[in-house]
Amino acid sequence: MQCTGGTPCEACASRRSPCVYDASSDQRRKIANQRNVHELAETQVQLERHKQLLGGMIATIRAGDFDANSDLIRVVRSGVDLSQLAAHVRNECRSNVSIQQAYEQIDFCIDGPLELPSPTQVLGEIAPQGDAKSSTSDAPEVNSEPFQPDIWRNLNRES
């Protein structure tokens, strides 16, 4: 029987002998552990890249002008792969100080329940107090009109 890794392992337990294991001499486990550490490091790098992409997209939406947001939407909808999208977002962030500053202010910590609130709930929480409409329902009203980019253009001109 082979060692199953328990204390005592099944082989030693069935023979009723002391279970002595020298982990440093077992190269199979050492190599497997090194491979796991390498895979975790690669995963961490990928997660960091995804975080930078997400942050850049959020910063562009928050601080970018109409053209920056239109370009971002166009690139996303074009179906490019993530590395091309990341290059676009990175270039946009580097060329726009407002977007850089918005990126630096993002708190990437997600607290709370695993289930995220619906867009309706989020928009209801951030609605300006003066614009609150009285309603018998606790849920905020949702505008069912289609997205109109001209609205964003007008907002950017006013600021």
From TrEMBL:
Keywords for the protein's UniProt record, in alphabetical order: DNA-binding, Nucleus
Keyword Nucleus in the entry? The reply is yes
Q: Which residues form a coiled coil?
A: none
Q: Where is this region: Disordered?
A: 123-159
User: To which species is this protein native?
Assistant: Capronia epimyces CBS 606.96
Determine the domain of life of the protein's source: Eukaryota
What is this protein called in UniProt? Answer: Zn(2)-C6 fungal-type domain-containing protein
Q: Name one GO molecular function term.
A: zinc ion binding
**InterPro entries in the record, alphabetically?**
Zn2-C6_fun-type_DNA-bd_sf (IPR036864)
User: Does the keyword field hold Nucleus?
Assistant: yes
